[in-house]
Amino acid sequence: MSAPLTIAIDGPSGSGKSSVSRAVARALGVGFLDTGAMYRALTWWCLERDIDLTDADAVAAAARDLPLTVGTDPDAPTVSVDGTDISQAIRTTRVSTSVSAVATNLQVRAELQQRQRDLMAQIAQETGGVVAEGRDITTVVAPDASVRVLLTASEEARLRRRSTELHGSTDAAAVEATRDQVVRRDRDDSTVSTFTEAAPGVVLVDTSDLDFDQSVAAVLAVVTAETSA
Ligand SMILES: Nc1ncnc2c1ncn2[C@@H]1O[C@H](COP(=O)(O)OP(=O)(O)O)[C@@H](O)[C@H]1O
Ligand SMILES: Nc1ccn([C@H]2C[C@H](O)[C@@H](COP(=O)(O)OP(=O)(O)O)O2)c(=O)n1
ipTM greater than 0.95, yes or no? Predict the structure, then answer.
């Protein structure tokens, strides 16, 4: 049996990580892991339980206890905590605006990074491969992945995409309403992860001028090139 195909994809908010990674996993017939959803799930759980997000030790304890289950089918990825499906709840503005406070907690990162390594190994074993996406997959969680990609896009393109997704519009008010979730969050997140420049051995794919299908094709071309080398 050939070695499982592990693909790590990082990038800033709105670069297309989740949607492109899902399509790549689907095309390759392997499982998918959205690591951002895990930070979002922990944030949701802390907010539910009124845990003060600035209390680093309390949030770290919640991370260790988090009864998290992730569904890794790229056609229907799900996130559940303690049996409750929170796939929709973790996408609300309330969670999006708070998640960096949780994701910049270094104790939390150590816990979730270990869970992510374990999940990647499990998914790869079950499906023959895995596409995992986030901010530190290419550098910290899976630096030994078969293929490592940094997906980027200009700030303008990322704001436009997120604004269309959240508000169905790219008018000035909608773009401004999206700015905190894209620009401020990336600034906060980049204090603990390096995802604005490709680390050595990581292939940069800039999707600023690509549509969705072209972005998927570009990543699949990298996979072909890197695995046939
Ligand atoms: N290359 C692209 N061109 C246009 N829209 C895209 C492209 N890639 C992704 N999108 C859209 O942009 C939005 C944000 O993509 P998403 O995958 O959630 O990004 P990320 O996970 O990096 O935050 C989604 O609505 C997605 O369909
Ligand atoms: N491997 C990861 C994945 C996400 N994060 C952080 C960064 C983000 O603020 C949150 C949520 O990530 P998510 O990928 O869902 O965010 P976007 O879809 O890119 O807006 O978690 C991280 O620090 N490390």
Answer: yes
Instruction: Produce one character per residue of 184-193: b if its CB has 16 or more CB atoms within 10 Å, e if not.
Output: ebbeebeebb
Ligand nearest to the CA of 18: 1
39 in ligand 2 pocket by Cβ < 6 Å?
Answer: yes
User: Would the annotation count 67 as a binding residue?
Assistant: no
Closest ligand (CA of 37): 2
Is residue 108 within 8 Å of residue 59, measured between CB atoms?
Answer: yes
User: pLDDT tens-digit profile of 115-158?
Assistant: 999 999 999 999 999 999 999 999 999 999 999 999 999 999 99
Indicate if ligand 1 lies below 6 Å from the C-beta of 209.
no
| 18 annotated as ligand-binding | yes
Sequence length of the chain is: 229
120 and 136 Cβ atoms separated by less than 8 Å: no
Span from the CA of 126 to the centroid of ligand 2 (angstroms): 25
Instruction: For residue 210, give both structure tokens.
Output: 């690509």
For residue 35, the enclosing domain spans 5-216
**Is 224 among the domain residues?**
no
Ligand 2 site, residue 99, Cβ cutoff 6 A:
yes
Q: What is the pLDDT of residues 44-65, one digit of tens each?
A: 999 999 999 999 999 999 999 9
Task: Indicate which CATH number applies to the domain containing 182.
Answer: 3.40.50.300
Global pTM value = 0.96
Q: Is the Cβ atom of 13 under 6 angstroms away from ligand 1?
A: yes
